[in-house]
Design goal:
With 302 residues, the chain is α/β, with parallel strands linked by helices. The mean pLDDT is 96. The protein has helices at 24-37, 56-70, 85-98, 115-126, 139-142, 148-155, 173-180, 195-203, 218-229, 233-253, 255-265, 282-299; strands at 7-10, 41-44, 75-79, 102-105, 133-136, 160-165, 189-192, 208-211. The chain has an 8-stranded parallel β-barrel with strand order 1-2-3-4-5-6-7-8, surrounded by 6 helices. The protein has 12 helices and 8 strands.
């Protein structure tokens, strides 16, 4: 099961109208693009996929649309985070029934969770289906931090097979991996999100790049990931240099705002982020266009 959590996992946006109704035709086209590029897996209904802005019905429609395109050709991972445990369990069962191959779960909360509360939440969701589950460690959004002790406990739950980690503040990927791997079960996959650091994390031994840009520019992202997987640090730095303007925008405005603007510029969608998130201004969009221009040669077919 751990092999489902390896390589480039591409996370596209979920086009929807102002009422949160998903445009499954536009969404399916985005999934087809990722399938054609041959990403290792597709992650839907993550933060970029606006899962917390969508109803249960719309989330199920989204999984069904993606599964209909992929047809089992590559792993389809669906986010199932929710405030209440029973809701997350229901979403997990929906995702399994709709054709997902794996689950992604964040400890979403309003009242801050304790370590024990998070453990029981994850155990309940992991036990609700036969699907392997990845822990979504996203403290900048959830305001929850997993202790090493909690991760060890979760790793011994049979269906929990991976973790999506934030970039360490000190960028010591090798040190973090060396600390965590001996504590976790054999084959437990450790991957990273935060696109600007994931190639370096892979060079250091990370298993997975959970990628926002992979959902937008899959060919460019795959080139960067394959160089990192091959241990070619020089090529990683060469390719990463072209990404720097985009990384700067991600850090300044948040990747979701930038990716929505970029998807519209590339004629992939005609939609805006869910309110109250506002689209970028015209001056900011100009910077996005310039960043895309810097990547145009990488995204071109080899």
């Amino acid at each position: 099961m751990a092999t489902r959590f390896k390589g480039l996992s591409a996370f596209p946006i979920t086009p929807a109208d102002e009422a949160g109704r998903v445009d499954t035709q536009a969404f399916s086209a985005l999934i087809e693009r990722l399938d054609t590029a041959a990403v290792d897996s597709v992650g839907i209904l993550g933060s970029t996929g606006i899962y917390m802005y969508l109803s249960r019905e719309e989330r199920r429609r989204t999984v069904e649309a993606a599964a209909a395109v992929l047809k089992g050709k590559r792993t389809l991972m669906a986010g199932v985070g929710a405030l209440r445990t029973d809701e997350a369990v229901a979403l997990a069962k929906d995702a399994e029934a709709a054709g997902a191959d794996a689950l992604l779960l964040a400890p979403v909360s309003y009242t801050p969770l304790t370590q024990e509360e998070a453990y029981h939440h994850f155990a309940a969701v992991a036990g609700a289906t036969a699907l392997p589950l990845a822990i979504y460690n996203n403290p900048s959004t959830t305001r929850f931090s997993f202790s090493d002790e909690l991760l060890v406990r979760l790793a011994y739950i049979p269906n929990i097979r991976a973790i999506k980690m934030p970039l360490p503040a000190d960028s010591d990927y090798a040190g973090e991996l060396a600390r965590l791997r001996p504590k976790l079960t054999d084959g437990f996959a450790i991957g990273y999100s935060g696109d600007w650091g994931c190639a370096e994390a892979t060079l250091a031994g990370g298993d997975t790049w959970y990628s926002v840009v992979g959902g937008l520019l899959p060919v460019s992202a795959l080139r960067l990931m394959r160089a990192a997987e091959g241990g070619d640090a020089e090529e990683v730095r060469r390719i990463d240099a072209a990404f720097q303007p985009l990384w700067a925008l991600f850090k300044e405005f948040g990747s979701i705002r930038v990716v929505y603007a970029a998807a519209n510029m590339l004629s992939l969608t005609v939609c805006e982020p869910p309110r109250p998130i506002l689209p970028l201004t015209s001056a900011e969009r100009q910077r996005v266009e310039e960043a895309l221009d810097a990547l145009s040669s990488l995204e071109a077919a080899p």
